Amino acid sequence: MEQKKGGMKKTRSAGKGLSEKRLAALLDKGRLPQHVAIIMDGNGRWAEMRGLPRIAGHREGIRSVKEVVTACRKLGIYALTIYAFSLENWRRPPQEIRELMSLLKEYLKKELPTLMKHGIRFRTIGRIERLPGSVIRQIAEAEAATRGNDKMVLTIALSYGGRTEIVDAVRKMLSDFQRGVLTLDQVDEVRLGHYLSTAGLPDPDLMIRTSGEARISNFLLWQMAYTELYFTKTLWPDFRRPDFLQALQDFQSRKRRFGLVQGQIKKQGGAGQG
Hints:
- By secondary structure, this protein is of the alpha/beta class.
- It has a single domain (31-267), classed as Decaprenyl diphosphate synthase-like (Undecaprenyl pyrophosphate synthetase, 3-Layer(aba) Sandwich).
- Helix content is 42%, strand content 13%.
- It contains nine helices and six strands.
- The protein has helices spanning 20-26, 43-49, 54-75, 94-117, 133-146, 162-178, 189-194, 241-252, 262-267, and strands at 35-39, 79-86, 120-125, 152-160, 206-209, 228-231.
- The chain has a six-stranded parallel beta sheet with strand order 3-4-2-1-5-6, sandwiched between helices.
- It is globular, with a radius of gyration of 19 Å.
């Protein structure tokens, strides 16, 4: 296993060097993650390495989004959540933000027919109200049109921060408490989960981060308590179906104990396995 400075574990090499066909054949279809979360990192660096404007990297990254969405749909992975724009990203140059928002509108407009065709529900999480009005309208249209789709859920985190999400959930709980809808005895981890923006979705089983960075950057902090983390040096615009299959192969090599010991897992028939 590779190591990063400070002892941080890096991506395992399960499946490394195998062909796409072989990787697909090795996957155990019965042990795929229900929910995959992705931090799409490296678009800007990809463009700069080629002497291109940063928006070119974001545009190429859209191709990777499409490929991973298609792979999830074909494999039967129910939920995919991608981190597209964080609250911290508002500090970026205004021109880049405008270009990103335009690209987002373009993606939603072009992909809506595909989402409808394949029964994919589209959702967003984050402080969407900070986005430009035209983007909010495009999001609302896509969410409304796909609301009845139930084959897969594609969630895009926009103007999102994990800590802010938890704060917002607590505020909603306090509001319900003040109105007499909620009592202190009812407050527990499960109840708080109902107030999060991901309510109704299973917690992520696997989180993938591209570009070599090994941190979760304020993404789904509550939800990723037991998520398997996978870090790869591949920049997001270069991350395609074989890379995704390799991440899934690595996931299936993990032993997920959820606080149990191996003996307990064996007695439960391997319930703790990936």
